[in-house]
Amino acid sequence: DGGITQSPKYLFRKEGQNVTLSCEQNLNHDAMYWYRQDPGQGLRLIYYSQIVNDFQKGDIAEGYSVSREKKESFPLTVTSAQKNPTAFYLCASSSAGANTGELFFGEGSRLTVL
Amino acid sequence: EDQVTQSPEALRLQEGESSSLNCSYTVSGLRGLFWYRQDPGKGPEFLFTLYSAGEEKEKERLKATLTKKESFLHITAPKPEDSATYLCAVQGHSWGKLQFGAGTQVVVTP
Questions:
Q1: What's the whole-number average pLDDT of chain B?
Q2: Mutation for testing the B interface, residue in A43, A48, A51, A59 having most B CBs under 10 Å
Q3: Interchain pair B87, A101: CB under 8 A
Q4: How many whole angstroms separate alpha carbon A56 and alpha carbon A14?
Q5: CB-CB contact of A113 with A86 (8 Å)
Q6: I need a surface site. Which of A46, A100, A106, B76 has the fewest CB within 10 A?
Q7: Does A39 touch chain B (CB under 8 A)?
Q8: Which of B80, B74, B44 minimizes the C-alpha distance to B59?
Q9: Do residues B57 and B50 make contact, with C-beta atoms less than 8 angstroms apart?
Q10: B46 chain-A contacts, CB cut-off 8 A
């Protein structure tokens, strides 16, 4: 089955540690995205990538980094510079030929900082 | 700056009790308005795209409509399996950037 796989589903981190969230898709989509979801707030865009080896900052990129070395993969690193990293992180993808608002989402990764 | 406001924040319905969710938006040059459904602890699932005022889309018990300032998601004769958070998002001129609302949490009781 085609889809987006995020791992791990749950992650606990001590303050000062970097963590990397994995996102893999087998939908052959060119564009991939990372969103952050906090209670009572809408999804906020962290980073997005339209094509391999290219990515752009979203609205809340500070304290995060990404890479796009393969079409299928778009990992997100939450660095120690992110002041409030506890959140639900969602990876998504879209086809370049479709409206880019029609996103396929993964199941999410919940990060908790202890 | 694009903005999306959804109301109400939460809605509790009896099975079969129809209702509507509201999504008010301001955007520079609407390229699309999108509705998603999100179950607890899961990623959102795409439902509809609306492009211009007057457009309507239907899927099972859900019907989405669009005006120049807002969109409505009508739930007709809901069932418990319609319980979820419904998210609205708009896309303006910026490629790849959606502005999401905070969502409406719907609970349908038997």
A1: 95
A2: A43
A3: no
A4: 28
A5: yes
A6: B76
A7: no
A8: B74
A9: yes
A10: 102-104
CB-CB under 8 Å, B91 with A40: no
Q: Does A102 touch chain B (CB under 8 A)?
A: yes
* Closest-approach residue (CA) in chain B for A39: B102
Question: HSE on the CB side for B27, CA within 13 Å?
Answer: 28
**Residue whose tokens read 């419904």:** B86
**Structure confidence by residue, pLDDT tens digits, B61-106:** 999 999 999 999 999 999 999 999 999 999 988 777 899 999 999 9
Q: In this predicted model, which residue has the larger pLDDT, B20 or B28?
A: B20
Q: Give the bridge partners for A101, in sequence order.
A: none
Cβ A58 vs Cβ A46: under 8 Å: yes
Quick check: A111 and A34 in contact, CB under 8 A?
no
| Residue B86 token pair | 């419904």
Q: What is the pLDDT of residue A97?
A: 59
What sign has the CA pseudo-torsion B39, A40, A3, B35?
A: positive
Q: Which residues in chain B have their CB less than 8 angstroms from residue A44's CB?
A: 100
Backbone angles phi, psi at A72, to 5 degrees: -80, -15
Residue A89 CA to its chain's centroid (Å): 6
- The burial of A82, by beta-carbon neighbours within 10 Å (0-12 exposed, 13-18 middle, 19 or more buried), is given as buried
DSSP one-letter string for B57-86: EEETTEEEEE-SSEEEEEE-S--GGG-EEE
